[in-house]
């Protein structure tokens, strides 16, 4: 499974629309559709932003476990906008860093 395929599955299981994710990435919804269809390339910066949004570091997307063990945060909202998605990605970055620090301390 490719990174783009994993990111599409993560988007769908997180119940985000293509337009929400496209807005978060600063691209057009049709561009995201083409990326998910394999017609356009996903940049490293875009992949990193999405990985953080879904609770992964970018390197873990290459592993089989990426789909099954993300950092999870729950929110209740009627609507989620680009700012909300950015805030969630920042919180996930903090949690990922904490997880890595804990792993290092155990070694």
Instruction: Provide the structure class.
Output: mainly alpha
Stretches where pLDDT is under 50 for at least 5 consecutive residues are none
Element pattern in H and E: HHHHH
Helix content: 55-70%
Calculate the mean pLDDT score and round it: 84
Question: What Rg do the Cα atoms give?
Answer: 14 Å
Q: How many angstroms does the end-to-end distance come to?
A: 31 Å
- Fraction in beta strands: under 5%
Number of strands: 0
Q: What is the count of helical runs?
A: 5
Shape: globular
Largest sheet descriptor:
none
Q: What does this protein structure show overall?
A:
With 107 residues, the chain is an all-alpha fold. Helix content is 58%, strand content 0%. It is built from 5 helices and no strands. α2 (18-25) packs across α3. The protein is globular, with a radius of gyration of 14 Å.
């Amino acid at each position: 499974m490719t990174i783009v395929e994993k990111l599409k599955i993560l988007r769908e299981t997180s119940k985000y629309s293509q337009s929400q994710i496209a807005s978060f990435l600063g691209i057009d919804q049709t561009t995201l559709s083409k990326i998910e269809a394999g017609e356009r390339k996903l940049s490293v910066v875009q992949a990193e932003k999405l990985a953080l949004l879904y609770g992964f570091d970018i390197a873990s997307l290459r592993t089989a476990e990426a789909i099954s063990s993300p950092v999870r945060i729950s929110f209740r909202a009627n609507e989620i906008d680009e700012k909300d998605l950015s805030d969630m990605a920042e919180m996930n970055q903090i949690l990922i860093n904490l997880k890595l620090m804990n792993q290092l301390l155990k070694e």
